Amino acid sequence: MHPRGRTAVSMHVAAAVLTVLVSASCSMRPLQGVLVPSSEAVEAASQVPILIGTTRARSSSDPGEMFSREPSSEMAFAQVTVSIPPDGSRKAGEIQWPLSPPGDPRKEFVTASAGYLDRTEFGAAVSSAAKARHLTKTLVFVHGFNNRFDDAVYRYAQFVHDGRLPVIPILFSWPSQGAGNLGSYDHDRKVAGRSGSALTELLDTVNANPAVKEITFVCHSMGCLVTLDALRSRASHGGSVPKLKNVALVAPDIGFDEFISAVGALGPRRPRIGLFLSQDDTALKLSKSLAGGTTRLGDINPQDEPYKSALAQQKILVFDLTHLGGDDSHSRAFGEVGSVMGMIKQRLAQGQQLGEDPSRTASH
């Protein structure tokens, strides 16, 4: 077969596989109305308030969507409180999507409240959450490819709840198409590459809040492109963010060499960086083929060279999640958040420092 013919066939197969991979986890959720608040409350359910900064435009067609896949030139703000059913009625690590909105809070995730905020109201909401819950730490989550706005909100609520995270949760949602096809993958990658400045803006807003003492970033998959760009932008302008202490990259869909170069450019005053990877990440292996064979950071073997030495030189904390198993290797950290938090706590209890050999981190 002619090389061009083989390329066309391989791209066709890749597109088909990509569609299956990215749509499987969203196949059970309703297409509309998820963020319409439910009037029914269940005493044993847990309420998880999510504060939001987004560069998506407001939805004009579905009030239960709030924000669409279309980009906005200005940052918008909102707050959504997600009700999560009692622990005995659900499997931890999973989102129990309502079969039809607004859903049954006894056994499904439902929206308890949702509303738009302006910038001043957003800052006041952060301060109010800090005071009411006696918290000073925020966790800013940046979602990945093929995420609608409601996908990102519910996934983050699940992550915070199942991890029992003592933080003020803040979501940064960039305008992913929320569609599982090759064209959307290419589109999302370009949009992600242009979204770093908006994340920097949100970071500055949170950093300026006196109620916040510490900020951690968690990015997933393609969202790590957004995060690295934001960090590079802040570093290139000679400014540091004293409150930004940690950055966790989960299954990052980034070229390994690109990551090492970006981290090196951040300078010595950068936050602590943790890498959460799975060597069997099927989605990233496909992404590698779409990227012309460029190795993706999120599915390397951290024991192999040149990865081991490069990560050690840059003092990257490595968490290999391969052994955790599960059906969705690309989102393993969210589905197995209890185990992941246990790994982190064990590492801290052992007093491991950033400069230690990453080979020690892979075994825990």
From TrEMBL:
Gene3D superfamilies: alpha/beta hydrolase (3.40.50.1820). One of its GO terms (molecular function) is hydrolase activity. The keyword Hydrolase applies. The keyword Hydrolase applies. It comes from the Bacteria. Keywords: Hydrolase. It holds the Pfam family DUF900. This is Alpha/beta fold hydrolase. It comes from Bradyrhizobium zhengyangense.
